[in-house]
């Protein structure tokens, strides 16, 4: 009897691991809730529910979906990790560690495939940007995302300013009644440091000019090439972010497995 009691006392759940995992996931959960809340709010503001046809419109990427998907996954994982740690629930702890491990494996696989199929990824990026150029005026969030990318990377279009011919408002056909015909968005314009107010009409008619004259007014390099250059210049920074995320995931899995083994050891002595 005394030996059994001594063995029971030897198997216990580590409070340090338990509450550290809980704290780790409460932040994860709250961050996921914030992302999900922002995504759902933006989704409702656009009136998507009143126009169900917009859900099936895949012409351009909607940044709201990124918030909803990422926020939803983080919220579910954070919830499972929090409740699993607090209640010492083996099912939720297993779900948390397995799902987090699956995400880590998918990220690793995606990284390897991206390295092996670099040319295919480049073609898909080109296709993706051109699709979003077509849908530039269809969604304000998409418009802001493209403007940010073009300003940040000092680029215009996928491979150059003429890619904006794909957009019905900016194309150069004689039948185009738009005032923006043969132009580019203001985010393609070379910024004048002396100007405090953004001139949103700076891209009007700019593609009617000769190539050399354009270079004074707008960026002439494509975003695909500029993005590749940015990746090469910031390779250590980008790699550090991915390694940091991977280490956090491995750390979370180890904590969950450690707590899971403690709970199983205690239950085995009941």
Automatic annotation (TrEMBL):
Pfam entry (one): Tetraspanin
Predominant localisation class: membrane
Database matches in InterPro entries: Tetraspanin/Peripherin, Tetraspanin_animals, Tetraspanin_CS, Tetraspanin_EC2_sf
Classification via PROSITE patterns: TM4_1
Keywords: Cell membrane, Disulfide bond, Glycoprotein, Membrane, Transmembrane, Transmembrane helix
Bilayer topology term: Multi-pass membrane protein
Bilayer-crossing regions: 20-44, 64-86, 98-117, 237-260
Gene Ontology cellular-component terms listed: plasma membrane
Keyword Transmembrane helix: yes
Cell location: Cell membrane; Membrane
SS bond list: 156-172
Superkingdom assignment: Eukaryota
Family (UniProt): Belongs to the tetraspanin (TM4SF) family.
Name of the protein in its database record: Tetraspanin
Organism for this UniProt entry: Takifugu rubripes
Gene expressing this chain: tspan17
